[in-house]
Specification:
There is one protein chain. Helices cover 26% and strands 30% of the residues. The chain is built from three helices and eight strands. With 185 residues, it is α+β, with helices and mostly antiparallel strands. Strands 1, 2, 3, 4, 5, 6, 7 and 8 form an eight-stranded mixed beta sheet that branches. The longest helix is centred in the middle third of the chain and has 21 residues. The protein has one domain: STM4215-like.
Length: 185
């Protein structure tokens, strides 16, 4: 339970959808950032993640951004828990289009987002067939937080030959904790 299992559940869910062709144009799903460069992060990250493409392609990066909120939801006694741990999730989308055409790039990017958002809403437990613990997430993308998308305006590299779009899909992953929990002092 906790950060590691929720991150794995979200990553496995997205990876399965990418491998099955449910989310098009995505080559890789990373469980966290593998690249950090403070200045011009978006350009450098998009080049690093999607730089080897010859057409339109993207990568997804799973971030648990916090703050997590763990609260008791029912009285279960002092030696047991009936808690809900709410994890804010941000899926970064680093998209690159070698076409150089911003309209073509935007259409391809929209195809990716239009696959991700309904997929999360259609499967609120995010239980892909390859994930070993299908009960890790009790609810995702529901309630008042919903599923939120935002993106940058398309921009190009210095040569103007590659169009980049960086976006995010945000939602909450709720983890239900109903177990005796003994923490050694």
């Amino acid at each position: 339970m906790g950060q590691a299992i929720v991150r794995k559940a979200v990553t496995d869910f997205l990876t399965y959808a990418v491998n099955q062709g449910i989310i098009p144009l995505v080559g890789q799903v990373y469980p966290g950032r593998t690249y950090i460069f403070e200045q011009d992060y978006e350009v450098n990250a998009a080049n690093a993640y999607a730089g080897n493409t010859t057409g339109d392609a993207a990568v997804l990066v799973v971030n648990l951004v916090g703050p997590d909120r763990r609260n008791r939801i029912a009285l279960a006694g002092r030696t047991a828990n009936y808690d809900m741990n709410i994890h804010p999730v941000v899926i970064e989308i680093f998209f690159a289009s070698r076409s150089g055409n911003p309209l073509t790039a935007q259409q391809s990017y929209d195809t990716i987002v239009d696959a991700i958002v309904p997929l999360i809403r259609a499967n609120p437990t995010l239980n892909s067939p390859v994930f070993a613990n299908p009960s890790a997430i009790w609810s995702a993308g529901e309630y008042s937080a919903g599923v939120v998308h935002q993106q940058t305006e398309p921009f190009t590299d210095q040569q103007g030959t590659t169009v980049f779009i960086v976006g995010e899909v945000q939602f909450e992953a709720w983890e239900q904790i109903v177990v005796p929990e003994v923490v050694p002092l």
